[in-house]
């Protein structure tokens, strides 16, 4: 499969051009057109990720958090220069997908988390700039917070960073929104959510969560956003026979 073919396929699959975002999505660093054999996946672009991709002879690297954000040009100096130099010198193309991957009903972080947990996916919720970026499930009979935290800890493989115990004793509706989603709390409360499972904590939203009466469990931005890239890579492997390597580079955050 050629580079342009894979880019075209990913753009169509993820609806890259249709989804507004603060990030630049799609192909970020090109290489000479050639046959792709090995695809890499990572949550973040970094010098370490580039070094890992070089070591594994990756041809095409897919990341959730790419080089370019907020529509502003970035000077190719310092760490940015070293990242780009490593990619270009070693013939590695870089493709980034932020909200398009988050939103995807099959390969998005939240959809994959629900599916792998074995929790029924009832659909999307959580309005962010007009986009419903989260997924939710409902339990009948209801569950307890301690029971759910225990199951989530076993699933993610790490203890929660923190737990805000502000919601009801009987939990029925649970939202899963990877990354940093506490700003969505008012919208989630209005939707009847009892528990939000997300990644990154926020001091600024602590009292709001308490006042709204919503439990929040935080497992880390990185931990909750490993799933989409992995699922997408597995799909490419199965559909096109491409070799896929996930570059697991946790931040602890």
Gist of the model:
By secondary structure, the chain is α/β, with parallel strands linked by helices. The protein contains ten helices and eleven strands. The protein has helices at residues 3-14, 47-55, 78-89, 99-103, 109-117, 145-156, 185-190, 206-212, 221-224, 227-240; strands spanning 26-29, 38-44, 60-65, 93-96, 123-128, 131-143, 162-164, 171-176, 195-198, 215-218, 243-246.
List strands and helices in order, with pairings.
Elements: H1 3-14, E1 26-29, E2 38-44, H2 47-55, E3 60-65, H3 78-89, E4 93-96, H4 99-103, H5 109-117, E5 123-128, E6 131-143, H6 145-156, E7 162-164, E8 171-176, H7 185-190, E9 195-198, H8 206-212, E10 215-218, H9 221-224, H10 227-240, E11 243-246
Parallel strand pairs: 2-3, 2-11, 3-4, 8-9, 9-10
Antiparallel strand pairs: 1-4, 5-6, 6-8, 7-10
Helix pairs in contact: 2-3, 5-10
Characterization of this structure:
The protein is of the alpha/beta class. The chain has two domains: 3-98, Udp-n-acetylmuramoylalanyl-d-glutamate--2,6- Diaminopimelate Ligase, Chain: A, domain 1, CATH 3.40.1390; 104-221, NIF3 (NGG1p interacting factor 3)-like (Udp-n-acetylmuramoylalanyl-d-glutamate--2,6- Diaminopimelate Ligase, Chain: A, domain 1, 3-Layer(aba) Sandwich). 36% of the residues lie in helices and 24% in strands. It contains ten helices and eleven strands. The chain has helices spanning 3-14, 47-55, 78-89, 99-103, 109-117, 145-156, 185-190, 206-212, 221-224, 227-240; strands at residues 26-29, 38-44, 60-65, 93-96, 123-128, 131-143, 162-164, 171-176, 195-198, 215-218, 243-246. It has a six-stranded mixed β-sheet with strand order 5-6-8-9-10-7, with helices on both faces. It has a five-stranded mixed β-sheet with strand order 1-4-3-2-11. Helix 5 crosses helix 10. The protein is elongated, with a radius of gyration of 19 Å. The chain starts with a helix and ends in a 7-residue tail after the last strand.
